[in-house]
Write a structure and sequence with these properties.
Layout: E1 8-11, H1 17-28, E2 32-37, H2 41-52, E3 58-62, H3 68-82, E4 87-90, H4 107-131, E5 137-141, H5 145-148, H6 154-174, E6 180-186, H7 195-198, H8 202-208, H9 218-228, E7 240-243
Helix pairs in contact: 1-2, 1-9, 3-4, 4-6
């Protein structure tokens, strides 16, 4: 059993999907949690209530982390609520549903994807690194698309590839404070974000391409995230942990 009692965590994108599953698994492991969200207040409050029912402190905080000020406010709010910060999980992000080749992607779509996936990651990680206690943990949620690319979603693939390079760049910087930073790279996951490709038998067709024969659920991704937050992973930093059922095999 992973024991995170006494640890203070912040999870972005915590109102649903992988973020919500991570909040609850951190709470099960004993960590106090602030979950950041942008618009889904009802869902965020429900997740926070479920975490509190597990016997920890848990608070939902609204913020627009695609702005520097919003990210700073979220991190300050987390410290104000919990008293300190030990663990930061950067999970918030978007996946543009529409398939568009590079000749079709508009300036607006490109900028929106980069703002939500790259700018928010940079702003929140920078703010968290400034206040994270020594021996802290940072885990950023990337994607297989950042490793192999994703045709007709090149904006998304580029944003997640940037995250992977960011993690590898920060690992030696933060090691001076014994802070580790890693990324979990999911493949297909059973979340609301994938409702469109899963429709009309799409989920079954996708599952058939995965060696393990199934689409991951959100807790399958939360498990490795929480492991990387624990003392069991204290000598792992700058790594990309693939959680994709064997569909993308890369070192």
């Amino acid at each position: 059993m992973i024991d995170l009692a006494g640890k203070c965590a912040l999870v972005t994108g915590g109102s649903r999907g992988i973020g919500a599953a991570t909040v609850l698994l951190l709470a099960e492991s004993g960590a106090d949690v602030v979950l950041g969200y942008r618009a889904r207040a009802v869902d965020a409050e429900r997740v926070a209530a479920e975490a509190r029912a597990l016997g920890v402190r848990a608070v939902a905080v609204a913020a627009d982390i695609a702005t520097s000020n919003g990210a700073d406010d979220l991190v300050r709010g987390a410290v104000a609520e919990l008293g300190a910060l030990d663990l930061f999980v950067g999970n918030a992000g978007i996946w543009p549903v529409e398939e568009e080749d590079v000749t079709q992607i508009s300036d607006a779509r490109w900028r929106h994807t980069m703002a939500q996936n790259v700018d928010s990651m940079f702003y929140t990680t920078r703010a968290a690194a400034r206040v994270l206690r020594d021996h802290g943990r940072i885990v950023l949620v990337s994607s297989t698309a950042g490793q192999r690319g994703e045709a007709f979603h090149s904006d998304y693939g580029a944003s997640k590839g940037a995250m992977i390079s960011f993690v590898k760049s920060l690992a030696p910087e933060l090691a001076r404070r014994d802070i580790t930073i890693n990324s979990v790279a999911p493949g297909w996951v059973d979340t609301e974000m994938c409702d469109v490709p899963y429709a009309d038998g799409g989920r079954e067709r996708i599952a058939a391409t995965i060696p393990l024969g199934r689409v991951a659920d959100a807790r399958d991704i939360a498990g490795p995230i929480v492991f990387l937050c624990s003392a069991l992973a204290r000598h792992i930093t700058g790594e990309i942990v693939n959680v994709n059922g064997g569909s993308v095999l890369c070192g």
